[in-house]
Specification:
By secondary structure, the chain is mainly beta. It has three helices and 31 strands. The protein has helices at about 155-165, 305-315, 380-385; strands at about 10-20, 25-30, 40-45, 50-55, 65, 90-100, 105-110, 120-125, 140-150, 175, 195, 200-210, 215-220, 225-230, 230-240, 240-245, 250-255, 260-270, 280-290, 335-345, 360-365, 370, 420-425, 435-440, 450-455, 460-465, 485, 490, 495-500, 515, 535-540. Strands 10-9-12-17-14-15 form a six-stranded mixed beta sheet, with no helix packed on it. Strands 21-20-24-29-26-27 form a six-stranded mixed beta sheet, with no helix packed on it. Strand 22 (about 370), helix 3 (about 380-385) and strand 23 (about 420-425) form a beta-alpha-beta unit.
């Protein structure tokens, strides 16, 4: 076979059915390379990452590299029908992109249907050779992937949610590294165990891969020192609790400074709404070397609705300004946006009987728009080939259509406010412009903490609070010195958050897309999902006048529709390689 040179790391992903036994029964899931969670990708900053994906599952699939900048490689970002069409069963696609200006813990996951529930894994970015992390070197490091488990097919759960409009059934368990832990039936033997040496320090790379839930994470009798979030260095924050939203990562240093014994690590949901939710607790066990104790000590987790603890953790994080890749907060703002976000209701689909409020179905709403994905062509292709007609429009509103008391619960189910329009509307940004967005939570259909995720960029979290944002008081709360930087953040329950970022990543003609969790229990879905009940702030194509706009078409293996007939192309192939 023809060979070609690649500088960096190469991986092969085979997406397949996998039969596992959990909670006393067998279940068929979709997984990568027969592993759950999937394989860990390890690269150095500056590497080129190449991943050959072979779809041997019965479902369409794409892979998103959560938190990766994708500098001039937007074709590889992964959101289905946004940057690419799906990889069909029996087909394959090669993702190829550079890892630039980032180091720390990120992750990858499926970005089509709800396959993210089981198709996910860690993505570890180490410093370039000769460089060190900006924290003391640990003896060893461990990945802690928090997830969810259902005793049925996640696709069947999705189809049921689509049918009745009320959202999916709650999960049957939470997991640590794919295992529920010994508080669940038939789960003791598989419980994740981590061995430590007294007096040594370890790095825990914590990833929330749960589909629906923010989580409290705690280790009995130990504190942790947060040193990074979403692959961005933080000032050290000592805490006995970590609060982590779906899609977020938190790196902590753990010193084994307690008496020889075994200690549970445990996680259960942070639920700010109070509707039906999974109230179970997943556990792993930290075992000190030479301990004779066989009964692990259990931490006391916060109450499920402990918003004060969650807010304290989130709001106390600050950036390490002398760390690598830090840039001062831009002070000149080119574009202001005010986005009210929360849950709304839309009419039930044809031939369906919906069981949400008012006989309708739930729909995420941003400025009274509920985003719908195109189905004929991906948005990035449409932008590149100037075929946007019928795919998307560039008139997403910068402000809500109506100003009202957003967090007043008396507006709950107000029929004049609660029904958004279904649309595929986007906002255009100028290259290198600075954008500030106020995200305002609403109480139209419940009040809950809402995670958001920005593709291709990190953003500064300038401030957050409760109630309605005040444009006089709010700016006085801004941290413009060392605000935390993230790619995923939770807007406080019944409150607001202000973020700022520079649109300096053309992503090959520039795709920025915001994903927002619908976050009404039990429907809490992070990232793009195939319903109007979940959606994003939309694709934001950068201005075509950017000096670095894309001048190359999609790479040859790109899974695209025929541009002449707008139907699925039968040709999807990878470049030749000697290492599939």
């Amino acid at each position: 076979m023809e060979k070609y040179q690649i500088l960096g790391r190469m991986y092969g992903f085979r997406v397949q059915n996998l039969t596992l036994t959990r909670l006393c029964q067998q279940e068929v899931i979709t997984a990568v390379n027969g592993e759950f969670p999937g394989p860990t990708i390890e690269v150095h900053e500056g590497d080129t990452l190449v991943v050959h994906v072979f779809n041997e599952s019965p479902y369409n699939v794409t892979i998103h590299w959560h938190g990766v900048f994708q500098l001039r490689s937007g074709w590889a970002d992964g959101p289905e029908y946004v940057t690419q069409c799906p990889i069909l069963p029996g087909n394959k696609y090669t993702y190829r992109f550079d890892i630039t200006g980032q180091e720390g813990t990120l992750w990858w996951h499926a970005h089509s249907q709800w396959l993210r529930a089981t198709v996910y894994g860690a993505l570890i970015i180490r410093p370039r050779n000769g460089h060190l992390y900006s924290f003391p070197k640990p003896l060893e490091e461990f990945q802690i992937l928090l997830g969810e488990w259902w005793n049925s097919s996640i696709i069947e759960i999705e189809n049921q949610a689509l049918s009745d409009g009320h959202g999916p059934n709650i999960s049957n368990a939470f997991t640590i590294n794919g295992q529920p832990g010994d508080l669940y039936d038939c789960s003791s033997d598989g419980t994740y165990r981590l061995k430590v040496i007294q007096g040594e320090t370890y790095l825990l790379r914590i990833i929330n891969a749960a589909l629906n839930n923010q989580l409290f994470f705690k280790i009995a009798n130990h504190t942790m020192t947060v040193v990074a979030v979403d692959a961005c260095y933080t000032n050290p924050l000592v805490s006995d609790i970590v609060v982590i939203a779906p899609g977020q990562t938190v790196d902590v240093l753990l010193t084994a400074d307690q008496p020889l014994a075994s200690y549970y690590m445990a996680a259960h949901p942070y639920d700010s709404l109070g509707f039906e939710y999974d109230k179970t607790t997943t556990t792993g066990i930290i075992i000190y070397e030479n301990t004779t104790s066989s009964s692990p000590l259990m931490p006391i987790l916060p109450a499920f609705n402990d918003t004060a603890t969650a807010f304290k953790f989130y709001s106390n994080l600050t950036s390490l300004v002398n760390g690598p890749f830090w840039a001062p907060v831009p002070l000149k703002i080119d574009k202001h946006m005010f986005v009210m976000e929360g849950l709304g209701l839309v009419p039930c689909g044809a031939n369906n009987t919906c069981t949400a409020f008012l006989g309708m179905q739930f729909a995420a709403s941003m400025n009274n728009e509920s985003f719908e994905l195109p189905t004929k062509l991906s948005m990035l292709e449409a932008s590149f080939y100037n075929l946007t007609s019928g795919i998307y429009t560039t008139d997403f509103p910068d402000y809500p259509p109506l100003v009202f008391n957003y967090t007043d619960k008396s507006n709950s189910l107000n029929i004049s406010l609660v029904i958004p329009s279904r649309s595929t509307r986007v906002t255009k940004l100028k290259f290198n412009s600075t954008v500030q967005i106020v995200f305002q939570n609403t109480a139209l259909v419940g009040v809950e903490n809402h995670p958001i995720h920005l593709h291709g960029h990190n953003f500064y979290v300038l401030a957050q609070g409760f109630g309605n944002y005040d444009d006089v008081i709010g700016p006085k709360m801004f941290n413009l010195i060392n605000p935390q930087k993230r790619s995923t953040y939770g807007v406080p329950v019944g409150g607001w958050a202000v973020i700022r970022f520079t649109a300096n990543n053309p992503e090959e003609q520039g795709n920025i897309n915001f994903a927002v969790a619908t976050y009404l229990r039990p429907l809490k879905l992070l990232d793009l999902l195939p319903l109007s009940t979940s959606k994003l702030l939309d694709l934001l194509p950068l201005d075509a006048a950017s000096p670095t706009t894309m001048d190359e078409p999609p790479p040859p293996p790109y899974p695209l529709f025929s541009l002449l007939h707008l139907k699925q192309s039968p040709f999807i192939a990878t470049r030749p390689t000697n290492n599939p």
